[in-house]
Amino acid sequence: MKKISTLFLMLMTLLALPQVARAADYDVEAADIAAFNAAEDGKVVKLTLTNARVNAFNDLAGTYYVEDASGATAIKGINLTKGTALNGSIVGKKGSEDMDFANTPSLCIEPSLTVTDATLSSFEATATTLAGTVMTIADACAQVNHGKLVMLNNISIEHIGNGKNWKLTDAAGNTMKTRDLFGVLPADYTWPEKASEMTGVLMYYMTGWFLIPISADMIVGTSAQVLSATFDFLNNNMNLAIGTATDVNAGNLGGKMVKMEGVTLSFVNAMTMPTRYYLNGSRGNQLQAIAGGMMRVTAPAGYAVVSIVSNGNKSVNAKTGEITYQNSWGIVKGGGSITEGKQETQTWTGNAESVLLNAQGPTYVESIVVTLAAANGETALLSEEAADSYTEVQGLAAFSDAANNSLVKLTLTDAIITSDMVNGWGYYVQDANAGAHFYCTALDFEVGDVLNGTVYVKKSNQNMGSRICMTEATNAQGLTITKNGTVTPVEGTIAEINVATNKCRVVKLTGVTVKGTKESEATITDAATNTITINNGKTNYYAYVIQESLADIDYSNATVTGILLGGSKENQIMPLSIVNGGTGIHKIASQKDENIQIYNLQGVRLNKLQKGINIVNGKKVVMK
What is the pTM of this model? Predict the structure, then answer.
């Protein structure tokens, strides 16, 4: 009896073991997932599993996504557990589904194994860690990765329309979609605006590539992660316009914002030169700021700037070989501390939503690296930053009386732009009582613009006249601009017009002698033998070269209209027109024939013919 019982127990044990698939139970064997995916559709395949990981379960389709070292596939018809490693074999029918619902043409095929007899499969499942392969969006979106567990780093997340889809964008600007297709996110889940890490199963769903999250924990918002943004001026990863030695205004950054990875740089020009981006000869592209030029670094919402590293451009002394790194930043707002300048790198450290730095001297920068962290209770807030204090003045005469280097809230009434400058950095302006010049303000005007309203600026005293300079608040939002304003020049003798109150205003001298002294200069003499120099516009401050040369001028009865400018030693006139007696505008002998000069009847030079009477090279031309 004992012998029979023993045999019975052995038989029952054998029946309890999983049935081992025999060759007759399947058509082909696949040594790994890649081999299974390559098998012919409709065949029954024995798939051998070696550390094959179950990445996710799609309840909508009853599909598990399984991945081994060779690839990924979908498995149906059998119960698996997400987050386990499978070793053994699964037998099922090979199929494939066209995932491109548009089907013109197919962009992705999902291979699948469907188990019809679970007893033919034999495997062990052990817990394993779910870790995605780090990829860029550009690399991830490919057939070979369909079904794989993928991790994207440092991506922005933006809702699309009113549906369930969201758009992912990486640092290179590549995009794809995401949605909670597997139903793993909590009902009250709030998507972050940016994630340092997002892990999910890569799928082609309906009409595009999607990264389907496998849990809320696999979406790591940047509030938990330190981030950085690199502004590479040397290699221009911001795609900025670049100035050159001959086009110095092209790279003017005054009033502009540059954004990378959510971090914003904004710039304020110095009183004498723009903060600019330009090609500095053999040194390459670089950011340039001179003393007084400012740069503000602002973190995205919810974050703080904790480090700013400025990598200076080096200057080599040709005689001594001494190397100088031209970093000269100082702190204006935002707190924190900064290392000594004129080193290869200069580093600000602190905890602020926004940091304002200014150049203490010549500063040439190859790159700026900004590090962020989640804002906290110690973060200096931009909203709590001390506001600048502006002195209110009405009109340009009062502006001229304002203290040097003071911040001014300037209200203009019928102020007219009378001329621009050769370098494009400024304009001359005057109202009923005084004149001044906008310089490096980033404001965009045209000659004849009439300005009414308020602008926030900085005052600078210059020999040439009162200078209207840029601050962080300088913009044209408070100004109303109308067109085609005209100016009545201040007329008189040289002694009468050559006074401080007329600096930067249009003046007019009649019946004077003009004698050329050199190509760029001539001398004006009136009946009382008073003299003043006229400058032909050879420097940055002038509007244009009115004639090819002043050296040949010898007029005895001229009318000169121009802008009175101060100089280091004496005042001079920047000409807007020179009319010789009643013969119209004089065409001097050295002038080239192709150099056509056009004026209106008031003697103001024009860029092109206008309706009415024009003076073209001394002759009247009527345009109807």
Answer: 0.60
